[in-house]
Amino acid sequence: MNRNEWITQAARLQSADQPFALVTVLSAQAPTSGKAGDKAVVTPDGQIHGWIGGGCAQPAVIKTVRRALLDGQPRKIRISPSDESAERDLGDVLEFGMACHSGGTLELFIDPVMPSAMLTVVGDSPVARALVGLAPRVGLRVAVVAQGAQAADFPDADTVLDSDEASQVSARLSSPFVVVATQGRRDLQGLKAALALQPQGLWFVASARKAEVLMQSLVTSGDDPQAVARIVAPAGAIIGAQTPEEIALSVLTSVVAARRGREPMASTAQAALTAPMASSASSEAPSSVAAASSCCGGSKKAAVAPAATASDAVAVPALTAEPKAALTPVAASAKSSCCGG
Q1: Is the distance from CB of 115 to CB of 176 less than 8 angstroms?
Q2: Distance (Å, rounded) from C-alpha 286 to C-alpha 91?
Q3: pLDDT of residue 336
Q4: 71, 65 contact by CB (below 8 A)
Q5: Mean pLDDT of successive 10-residue stretches along the chain, which has 341 residues
Q6: Interatomic CA distance for residues 54 and 340, integer angstroms
Q7: What is the 3-state secondary structure (H, E, C) of 49-100?
Q8: Tally of CB atoms within 10 A around 213
Q9: From CA 238, how far away is CA 250, in angstroms rounded?
Q10: Residue 82 CA: distances (Å) to CA of 41, 96, 104, 173, 329
């Protein structure tokens, strides 16, 4: 038995992006074959590489490793002689009874090592390129999806797909987080490719007005309304971003929050889509914006957004220092008083 086998196995599993736990013996009271400082790599299927003691301790270790790999949280456990194999949560340590005749007590620390999460960036815009460059610096692997994309153009990406066809993307990628940063080039195709991945979080770099139009188009073309309603747009935290790099940073802030268990914030486009979708889709064209009530008791028709097409080449407005400008579906023109001109 090579007690240092865990070093080789940890390197192998990490390079293959496979989850495992590093288990370390913190203390040992004789009689026990495990000694303080002994280590082992334990995989989800219960394989143990290294040495942490004999077979009596292994069932409790494997059980706890599987839990740790589910939630990513480390744990300290104590395995001590007992007539019952009961499990007790003592706050700072999880205690297991061990009915083996050998006796002895072990305390172990179980540290889960999770694979890097994948961020898929759809598009070949300046914001997309900035995202691809920034994401690996916060521990994310990156896949790029863009029609005609070349691997040489994205040196920081792990994977580059040169097609945004939804069927091809879903067949070749699995990704919990997706950002669509097409910015006017094949927006609809990019959103369909993103939805095909069924991600945990999906962000769209666009104004709320444009996002609403395209999200209505997705529903009209047969995409699942609930999945479409989960698209977060405008993407990113409001930090006064103006340059592509700043916008990428604001979007990445939201991705990191979701990765750490924070729910993506609901967006203006989502709110506009969920409530009036069923009633307005049949009576209004997808590109129209809902009528707004005036303070005089009548209704005032809002401006109509231009129809979105697959070849839409209109540049998406950057998130500006004024949050209202980024979030308001229709840009304000001259400010008039109520009922007064």
Answers
A1: no
A2: 55
A3: 35
A4: no
A5: 82 89 92 86 94 84 92 90 75 82 83 90 96 94 94 93 92 92 95 94 94 95 94 91 94 91 59 50 39 36 37 35 35 35 36
A6: 86
A7: EECCCCCCCHHHHHHHHHHHHHHCCCEEEEEEECCCCCEEECCCCEEEEECC
A8: 26
A9: 7
A10: 26, 8, 10, 48, 66
The predicted structure's pLDDT at residue 265: 56
Residue 36: both structure tokens together: 């303080």
Block residue for tokens 């303080």: 36
In CATH, the number for domain 118-275 is 3.40.50.720
Determine contact, residues 95/82, Cβ cutoff 8 Å.
no
Domain ranges of the chain: 5-113, 118-275
Q: Residue 134: its pLDDT value, please? A: 96
Helical H segments across the chain, by residue range: 5-15, 58-71, 126-134, 166-172, 187-196, 208-220, 225-229, 244-259, 268-274, 277-280, 323-327
Which distant-in-sequence residues (6+ apart) come within 8 Å of 184 by Cβ? 125, 312, 313, 314, 315, 316
Residue 234: asked if its preceding bond is cis (omega within 30°), the reply is yes
pLDDT of residue 264: 56
